[in-house]
Write a structure and sequence with these properties.
The chain has about 290 residues and is mainly α. It has 12 helices and no strands. Helix 3 packs antiparallel against helix 6. The radius of gyration is 21 Å and the shape is globular. About 30% of the residues are buried. About 10% of the residues have low confidence.
Length: about 290
Amino acid sequence: MSRFALAQGSRTARLAGSVGVLVRIELLKLLKRRIFWVAVVLFALLATMKFAIASVAVGEEMAFLLVPPGSWPATLAIPASIGPAFVGLLVIALFAPEFTWRTARQSVIDGLGVDRYYAAKCITVLALSALSVILALVLGFIGAAVGPVEWESNGLGAGDVQFLASYTAASLMAGAAGLWLSCTLRAGAPAMVAFIGYVVAEPIAAAILGGRSELLDVVLRYLPAGLATALGNRMAHYPEALPGVLEMAEVVGMSPPGTAPVKGLLIAVHVYVVVLFAAGYATMRYRDL
Protein backbone atom coordinates (compact mmCIF):
# COMPACT_ATOMS: atom_id res chain seq x y z
CA MET A 1 0.00 0.00 0.00
CA SER A 2 1.36 3.42 -0.99
CA ARG A 3 2.20 6.20 1.45
CA PHE A 4 -0.52 8.34 -0.12
CA ALA A 5 -3.18 5.70 0.54
CA LEU A 6 -1.99 5.29 4.12
CA ALA A 7 -2.05 9.04 4.70
CA GLN A 8 -5.47 9.32 3.13
CA GLY A 9 -6.76 6.48 5.30
CA SER A 10 -5.30 8.12 8.40
CA ARG A 11 -6.97 11.45 7.57
CA THR A 12 -10.29 9.70 6.96
CA ALA A 13 -10.06 7.87 10.28
CA ARG A 14 -9.25 11.11 12.13
CA LEU A 15 -12.18 12.86 10.43
CA ALA A 16 -14.56 10.03 11.32
CA GLY A 17 -13.35 10.09 14.91
CA SER A 18 -13.73 13.85 15.08
CA VAL A 19 -17.28 13.68 13.72
CA GLY A 20 -18.10 10.94 16.22
CA VAL A 21 -16.85 13.09 19.09
CA LEU A 22 -18.89 16.06 17.88
CA VAL A 23 -22.04 13.92 17.62
CA ARG A 24 -21.58 12.58 21.16
CA ILE A 25 -21.00 16.08 22.56
CA GLU A 26 -24.07 17.53 20.89
CA LEU A 27 -26.22 14.53 21.84
CA LEU A 28 -25.29 14.85 25.50
CA LYS A 29 -26.01 18.59 25.46
CA LEU A 30 -29.29 18.06 23.62
CA LEU A 31 -30.63 15.41 25.97
CA LYS A 32 -29.83 17.55 29.01
CA ARG A 33 -31.73 20.59 27.75
CA ARG A 34 -35.25 20.80 29.13
CA ILE A 35 -36.40 22.98 26.22
CA PHE A 36 -35.70 20.09 23.83
CA TRP A 37 -38.08 17.74 25.62
CA VAL A 38 -40.69 20.45 26.02
CA ALA A 39 -40.55 21.15 22.28
CA VAL A 40 -40.86 17.45 21.38
CA VAL A 41 -43.91 17.01 23.63
CA LEU A 42 -45.49 20.23 22.37
CA PHE A 43 -44.96 19.22 18.74
CA ALA A 44 -46.55 15.83 19.42
CA LEU A 45 -49.53 17.41 21.19
CA LEU A 46 -50.18 19.96 18.45
CA ALA A 47 -49.89 17.38 15.68
CA THR A 48 -52.18 14.98 17.57
CA MET A 49 -54.70 17.76 18.10
CA LYS A 50 -54.66 18.56 14.38
CA PHE A 51 -55.17 14.87 13.60
CA ALA A 52 -58.13 14.70 15.99
CA ILE A 53 -59.74 17.87 14.62
CA ALA A 54 -59.38 16.57 11.07
CA SER A 55 -60.88 13.23 12.10
CA VAL A 56 -63.92 14.87 13.68
CA ALA A 57 -64.35 17.15 10.67
CA VAL A 58 -64.65 14.28 8.19
CA GLY A 59 -66.32 11.68 10.39
CA GLU A 60 -65.15 8.98 12.75
CA GLU A 61 -65.08 6.35 10.02
CA MET A 62 -61.93 8.00 8.63
CA ALA A 63 -59.88 6.94 11.68
CA PHE A 64 -57.63 10.01 11.90
CA LEU A 65 -57.46 10.15 8.09
CA LEU A 66 -54.76 7.53 8.40
CA VAL A 67 -56.41 4.33 7.21
CA PRO A 68 -54.40 2.93 4.26
CA PRO A 69 -54.55 2.94 1.33
CA GLY A 70 -54.07 6.66 0.99
CA SER A 71 -52.85 7.17 4.56
CA TRP A 72 -49.44 8.65 3.82
CA PRO A 73 -50.67 12.00 2.40
CA ALA A 74 -52.57 12.85 5.60
CA THR A 75 -49.92 11.32 7.84
CA LEU A 76 -47.32 13.72 6.46
CA ALA A 77 -49.45 16.75 5.58
CA ILE A 78 -50.62 17.55 9.10
CA PRO A 79 -47.19 17.59 10.85
CA ALA A 80 -45.61 19.19 7.76
CA SER A 81 -47.70 22.29 8.39
CA ILE A 82 -45.99 22.93 11.73
CA GLY A 83 -42.75 20.88 11.64
CA PRO A 84 -40.39 23.31 9.86
CA ALA A 85 -41.31 26.23 12.13
CA PHE A 86 -40.78 24.04 15.18
CA VAL A 87 -37.33 23.00 13.97
CA GLY A 88 -36.29 26.61 13.33
CA LEU A 89 -37.47 27.84 16.71
CA LEU A 90 -35.98 24.86 18.53
CA VAL A 91 -32.58 25.46 16.92
CA ILE A 92 -32.71 29.06 18.14
CA ALA A 93 -33.77 28.00 21.63
CA LEU A 94 -30.91 25.50 21.83
CA PHE A 95 -28.11 27.45 20.18
CA ALA A 96 -28.61 31.20 20.76
CA PRO A 97 -28.30 30.97 24.58
CA GLU A 98 -24.80 29.56 24.18
CA PHE A 99 -23.67 33.05 23.19
CA THR A 100 -25.49 34.66 26.12
CA TRP A 101 -24.04 32.12 28.55
CA ARG A 102 -20.59 32.43 26.88
CA THR A 103 -20.39 28.65 26.46
CA ALA A 104 -19.81 29.07 22.71
CA ARG A 105 -16.71 31.15 23.37
CA GLN A 106 -15.51 28.76 26.05
CA SER A 107 -15.95 25.73 23.78
CA VAL A 108 -13.81 27.37 21.12
CA ILE A 109 -11.15 28.41 23.65
CA ASP A 110 -11.06 24.88 25.13
CA GLY A 111 -9.82 23.54 21.82
CA LEU A 112 -12.94 22.66 19.85
CA GLY A 113 -12.27 25.49 17.40
CA VAL A 114 -14.73 27.53 15.37
CA ASP A 115 -14.83 25.04 12.49
CA ARG A 116 -15.64 21.97 14.56
CA TYR A 117 -17.95 23.91 16.85
CA TYR A 118 -20.02 25.14 13.89
CA ALA A 119 -19.90 21.70 12.25
CA ALA A 120 -21.41 20.27 15.44
CA LYS A 121 -24.28 22.75 15.20
CA CYS A 122 -24.89 21.84 11.56
CA ILE A 123 -25.02 18.17 12.53
CA THR A 124 -27.57 19.07 15.22
CA VAL A 125 -29.74 20.87 12.66
CA LEU A 126 -29.64 17.80 10.41
CA ALA A 127 -30.58 15.55 13.33
CA LEU A 128 -33.47 17.77 14.43
CA SER A 129 -34.81 17.88 10.87
CA ALA A 130 -34.76 14.08 10.71
CA LEU A 131 -36.34 13.87 14.17
CA SER A 132 -39.30 16.03 13.09
CA VAL A 133 -40.00 13.60 10.22
CA ILE A 134 -39.65 10.56 12.48
CA LEU A 135 -42.08 12.09 14.99
CA ALA A 136 -44.57 12.74 12.20
CA LEU A 137 -44.39 9.10 11.10
CA VAL A 138 -44.68 7.79 14.66
CA LEU A 139 -47.73 9.96 15.33
CA GLY A 140 -49.28 8.80 12.07
CA PHE A 141 -48.80 5.13 12.89
CA ILE A 142 -50.21 5.62 16.39
CA GLY A 143 -53.22 7.46 15.02
CA ALA A 144 -53.92 4.68 12.55
CA ALA A 145 -53.38 1.96 15.17
CA VAL A 146 -55.86 3.40 17.69
CA GLY A 147 -58.47 4.23 15.04
CA PRO A 148 -61.69 2.19 14.85
CA VAL A 149 -61.03 0.89 11.33
CA GLU A 150 -58.91 -2.17 10.58
CA TRP A 151 -56.10 -1.52 8.14
CA GLU A 152 -53.21 -3.25 6.45
CA SER A 153 -49.70 -1.99 5.89
CA ASN A 154 -49.29 0.18 2.81
CA GLY A 155 -45.90 0.72 1.18
CA LEU A 156 -44.40 4.04 0.24
CA GLY A 157 -45.11 5.22 -3.29
CA ALA A 158 -43.25 7.77 -5.40
CA GLY A 159 -45.43 10.61 -4.13
CA ASP A 160 -44.89 9.54 -0.53
CA VAL A 161 -41.09 9.52 -0.91
CA GLN A 162 -41.26 12.94 -2.57
CA PHE A 163 -43.40 14.28 0.28
CA LEU A 164 -40.97 12.89 2.86
CA ALA A 165 -38.03 14.48 1.06
CA SER A 166 -39.87 17.80 0.78
CA TYR A 167 -40.83 17.81 4.47
CA THR A 168 -37.24 17.04 5.47
CA ALA A 169 -35.85 19.73 3.17
CA ALA A 170 -38.27 22.37 4.49
CA SER A 171 -37.35 21.47 8.08
CA LEU A 172 -33.65 21.65 7.22
CA MET A 173 -34.12 25.11 5.65
CA ALA A 174 -35.92 26.37 8.76
CA GLY A 175 -33.21 24.90 10.98
CA ALA A 176 -30.48 26.54 8.90
CA ALA A 177 -32.33 29.87 9.18
CA GLY A 178 -32.54 29.43 12.94
CA LEU A 179 -28.82 28.67 13.11
CA TRP A 180 -27.94 31.75 11.04
CA LEU A 181 -30.15 34.01 13.16
CA SER A 182 -28.59 32.60 16.31
CA CYS A 183 -25.07 33.29 15.01
CA THR A 184 -26.02 36.79 13.87
CA LEU A 185 -28.19 38.08 16.73
CA ARG A 186 -26.62 35.92 19.48
CA ALA A 187 -29.64 36.08 21.78
CA GLY A 188 -32.69 33.87 21.91
CA ALA A 189 -35.49 36.44 22.12
CA PRO A 190 -34.36 38.70 19.22
CA ALA A 191 -33.67 35.66 17.02
CA MET A 192 -37.11 34.18 17.70
CA VAL A 193 -38.81 37.53 17.07
CA ALA A 194 -36.94 37.84 13.77
CA PHE A 195 -37.84 34.27 12.76
CA ILE A 196 -41.53 34.57 13.60
CA GLY A 197 -41.72 38.09 12.22
CA TYR A 198 -40.38 36.97 8.86
CA VAL A 199 -42.73 33.98 8.68
CA VAL A 200 -45.69 36.31 9.33
CA ALA A 201 -44.49 39.20 7.15
CA GLU A 202 -43.58 37.25 4.02
CA PRO A 203 -47.10 36.08 3.04
CA ILE A 204 -48.49 39.55 3.81
CA ALA A 205 -45.89 41.13 1.54
CA ALA A 206 -46.56 38.50 -1.14
CA ALA A 207 -50.29 39.21 -1.02
CA ILE A 208 -49.70 42.95 -1.35
CA LEU A 209 -47.06 42.80 -4.07
CA GLY A 210 -48.32 39.78 -6.00
CA GLY A 211 -49.75 40.21 -9.48
CA ARG A 212 -47.81 43.36 -10.35
CA SER A 213 -45.40 41.65 -12.72
CA GLU A 214 -44.47 38.13 -13.81
CA LEU A 215 -40.89 38.51 -12.61
CA LEU A 216 -42.00 39.71 -9.18
CA ASP A 217 -44.45 36.80 -8.93
CA VAL A 218 -41.63 34.34 -9.61
CA VAL A 219 -39.45 35.97 -6.95
CA LEU A 220 -42.28 35.89 -4.41
CA ARG A 221 -43.01 32.25 -5.21
CA TYR A 222 -39.47 31.25 -4.28
CA LEU A 223 -39.17 33.05 -0.96
CA PRO A 224 -38.41 30.73 1.99
CA ALA A 225 -41.76 30.69 3.83
CA GLY A 226 -43.64 30.28 0.55
CA LEU A 227 -41.39 27.38 -0.41
CA ALA A 228 -42.06 25.61 2.89
CA THR A 229 -45.81 26.11 2.45
CA ALA A 230 -45.76 24.86 -1.14
CA LEU A 231 -43.75 21.77 -0.21
CA GLY A 232 -46.18 21.05 2.63
CA ASN A 233 -49.13 21.08 0.20
CA ARG A 234 -50.02 17.44 -0.38
CA MET A 235 -51.52 18.20 -3.79
CA ALA A 236 -48.03 19.00 -5.10
CA HIS A 237 -47.02 15.39 -4.43
CA TYR A 238 -50.23 13.55 -5.32
CA PRO A 239 -51.47 15.06 -8.61
CA GLU A 240 -53.84 12.14 -9.13
CA ALA A 241 -55.94 13.42 -6.22
CA LEU A 242 -56.12 16.99 -7.52
CA PRO A 243 -59.27 16.61 -9.69
CA GLY A 244 -61.29 15.38 -6.71
CA VAL A 245 -60.03 18.20 -4.51
CA LEU A 246 -60.87 20.79 -7.16
CA GLU A 247 -64.36 19.38 -7.48
CA MET A 248 -64.86 19.43 -3.72
CA ALA A 249 -63.55 23.01 -3.49
CA GLU A 250 -66.03 24.08 -6.17
CA VAL A 251 -68.92 22.43 -4.34
CA VAL A 252 -68.17 24.11 -0.99
CA GLY A 253 -67.23 27.43 -2.58
CA MET A 254 -63.56 27.43 -1.55
CA SER A 255 -60.60 28.56 -3.62
CA PRO A 256 -58.81 25.58 -5.20
CA PRO A 257 -55.30 24.85 -3.88
CA GLY A 258 -52.38 25.89 -6.04
CA THR A 259 -49.47 23.64 -6.91
CA ALA A 260 -45.97 24.17 -8.28
CA PRO A 261 -43.27 21.89 -9.77
CA VAL A 262 -41.66 20.18 -6.79
CA LYS A 263 -38.24 19.68 -8.36
CA GLY A 264 -37.68 23.42 -8.78
CA LEU A 265 -38.90 24.08 -5.25
CA LEU A 266 -36.51 21.50 -3.79
CA ILE A 267 -33.56 22.98 -5.69
CA ALA A 268 -34.42 26.43 -4.33
CA VAL A 269 -34.72 25.08 -0.78
CA HIS A 270 -31.30 23.42 -0.94
CA VAL A 271 -29.78 26.62 -2.30
CA TYR A 272 -31.22 28.46 0.71
CA VAL A 273 -29.81 25.78 3.04
CA VAL A 274 -26.30 26.13 1.60
CA VAL A 275 -26.45 29.94 1.68
CA LEU A 276 -27.76 30.05 5.26
CA PHE A 277 -25.19 27.54 6.53
CA ALA A 278 -22.43 29.50 4.76
CA ALA A 279 -23.69 32.82 6.16
CA GLY A 280 -23.76 31.39 9.67
CA TYR A 281 -20.23 30.04 9.28
CA ALA A 282 -18.97 33.37 7.97
CA THR A 283 -20.51 35.13 10.97
CA MET A 284 -18.87 32.66 13.36
CA ARG A 285 -15.54 32.80 11.58
CA TYR A 286 -15.07 36.53 11.16
CA ARG A 287 -16.85 37.94 14.19
CA ASP A 288 -15.59 37.84 17.76
CA LEU A 289 -17.35 35.46 20.08
